[in-house]
Amino acid sequence: MKIIVGSSNPVKIKCVRKIFAKYFEKISVEGKKVESKVGRQPESEEETIKGARNRAKGIHTTDNPDFALGIEGGLEHIRKKYYAYAWICIRSKDRKESMGRTASYPLSFRMIDIIKKGKELGEANDIVFKTKKSKIGKGAIGSLSKGYLDRSGLLEQGVICALLPFINKDLYD
Q1: How much is the average pLDDT of 52-60?
Q2: Is 30 marked within a binding site?
Q3: pTM for this structure?
Q4: In the chain, where the domains are located
Q5: What local confidence, expressed as pLDDT, does residue 173 receive?
Q6: What is the pLDDT of residue 165?
């Protein structure tokens, strides 16, 4: 089974490999850089969903994997606070599509100030916590949770949620 993730980020690829291996045998997971066609840091649920869908659809324009995944992180402004989360879009070879979302978590005002100056969440996290390339490591959730939850763990739940119709075909068809 061939699976392509619309990203070259090793955290996203590792997460998808881990989850798909729980449900399917003989999998091959690879990453491919695909444009989201949304802003560098989506700031609404709709924009984030669009980015995830665009990444998954973009894979099918050049490849024909069994599953194509788009994973897009975004921010939402709710009651004077900003929350981070990710949407995951899974498209099958026959173009059936399912979406899943991670938990959301509040961002610090210091991070938001940096993001408002044009940086992505990963860059803001690196500045606030004096880390490097956290986007391909534990992520902002890893820093904020003091290591209890990392980016891969957060993304795993969204991938599982998006995968539900494909592992329970009799219930969703």
Answers
A1: 96
A2: no
A3: 0.94
A4: 2-104+150-172
A5: 78
A6: 98
